[in-house]
Fold this protein.
Amino acid sequence: MVEDIRIFLILQKSKLSRFLKIFKEKDWPKILVMVCFLLVALILALTTYFFSKSAFLFINHYPQFLESMLFYTLLGWFFLIFILTLGSSLISALQNFFVQDDDRLLLSLPIKPQIIFESRLIDLITLSGWPVFVFGLPLLWAFKKSFQFSFCYFFLSFLALILVYLISVLIASIVSLKIISFTGQSGKKAVNLSVLIGLPILAWAATNVLIPANLVETFQKLELSQINRFLKLLPINSPFFPSTWAVNFIFYWTIKPEFAIDNLIKLFLLLTVLTGFLYWLVNKEYFYDLSKVRIGYFIARPQDKRRPSFNKKSFSYGLKSLKTTFLEKDLLIFSRNQAEIYQAGFIFFMILLYFLILDKIPLEKLAENLPYFSIEKLMGMNFIFGAYILALLGLRFVFPMMSSEGQAGWLLWSAPFSKKEIFWQKLLTGWGFLTLIGAIVSLFSTLILKLNFRLLTNQFLFFLPLALGLASINLGFGALFPDFREKNLEKISTSAGGILATALSLFYIFLFNQLLLFNFDKPFLSLFYLLIWLLSAGVAIFLSVISLFKIKRYQF
Amino acid sequence: MIKTFNLTKRFGEITAVDNLNLHIKKGEIFGFIGPNGAGKTTTIKMMVGILAPTKGRVEIDGNDLAKKPLEAKKIIGYIPDEPYVYPLMTGREFLHFVGQIYQVKDKEKKIKKLLKIFPIESMIDGYFQDFSRGTKQKLAILAALLHQPQILIIDEPILGLDPASSQITKDLLKKFSQKGGTVFISSHTLPVVEEICHQIGIIDQGKLIFKGTIGELKKKLKSKEGKLEELFLKITQ
């Protein structure tokens, strides 16, 4: 036991010293990335703090429903944090537990797999905790400041928040272990397909459960005194959510201490049960799963069957063009990468959730009641939302495209073909992929906002140059700042080059929207549309030229 | 067939390869040996065009690698010391992919024929990430032969291979040379170099300290007998 703890501490110490090395060696690109992340986190935290404080002070002016509004504000926030940490932990867990450079070394050393897992669990807790510090902590601090609560009360509230967070990490860890155990790193087609089909169904179900039918009418009919009764029916108040227990603890600590303690005990109990289950699972499966992913499929458990033999129709039979070959290869590898599929699925889940929520809100009735509200304004907002989604997808999936070729750099760069082919294929794929998402956003918003065909065409034709610009920025910066050693594509996206690409993408979207906001209704064969194309083509040509110059000089 | 002219590579203040001049004839198997960090892999990488020289040039069959890279690369088959590729690609898909990027006609037939060289048919539909070092090496060898190159440039040809596969590889290289192909091998396995190479080059700290046959090396070191290993230790110490 003492030896186990010693080994665990050594592993933690080595990670810490690797982290400190960045500062000792003055690794400026990495320091710049960290500073940028901290700045973004600080901005988000301050926004949350001031927003929450204003909301609490506003609620404070209405003593007749102060109690219920406070309770449900906290409930909503805690539920959001619970979902965010759950999603973030699940995505990180798939990479963190199974794709690390030191797997082989650690497994060959006299260290229990459980200790390797524990060390990675600590990483996961550290990495996925950002919603707690960006949203949770500022919210609780605003709560304390607005109602003058004691520091002890703040501390207990924070403890409840941490418990909710740890529960979400444990659930995500259990799910990721089971996913890998069932499918391996290279997921089975059926599982990947069911995730991609299952997530939209889940999004639809979640929207229907979370948002009551006829929302606006219900609110209009209710008296203020009845709102409390209505809110109690909201599903986020479910007695099965750890977020509800945490809010019950925080809210009733001064009013009904025994009820508050009861909820805290529930949190601890769930945490204990989940920890026990996770440890049972780790002891039973982790070594085999890690072997399956990293060391080799053939030495995994005896019941693991061999893969079916090569499907002659599936890949590269007959001679095809280089662009087709690379596209086919990219799609094939993407379809087999469990972590990539799940990340894509999660992003699409969020997009779909947004549209389903938009669909659930009776916009026409809102337009009748609110004088400053209009469908056209909502469409503009929707376009900006779409632009940010494309920027996010560009960063996550287009930016690492050139770096991912580094795995076979020796083969590709020693082969007799122009490396421009790889760049053009990636640019066309990236542009096509982002345009497809743009088309989906246009189609959904047309259906939901009941727009006419001309506005649908206009929206799509705006997404076309926008997608070109964003694909060029992300692919170009990915080519200018490649990382051929990193196998984890998610980490490539969050490098210094990724930060620069994001900054430029945001500036580009800002310029694009400045042109767009005042001209949304103009026909696409106008001078304004030409300007938009000039802007996008200019960005694409400039970045392509300097990227091709760099690609030609890649060294392996 | 392969010529280097004052080939130099510097990494910051370190000179990895220093004014290397080599001339390897058609049909020759050339062994390139040297201690760790001597500059062997750097030289090979410059010869296949994945590392740019700081100074000097490489000529492949009369084509300057910097000026006519496509013509030069068309006739080279390269096997690196670490033949890693996309982990989630199967062995067979890898061979087909290589066939595509080299635009090999009738690649299905050629792959079928190549797969008879090593007995790997039973595992070829597994993913690359699951393969042993030896299987990866065998696939890299087959991939290098797929487009029927005139030159093979190999960094550690038998690393990770079992004795039977090592023998197959050595026979393969000898046959390749007999048919007029040129082979450039860099290796630490000196008995293999001794067995199959017509000429050797010894590099130490980036400088070529010897080039010629093993007999000439013996003469230079005034050693009547002894294996290459002993001669190598003598010249590099």
Q: What stands out?
A: Chain B touches chain A through 47 residues (CB under 8 Å).
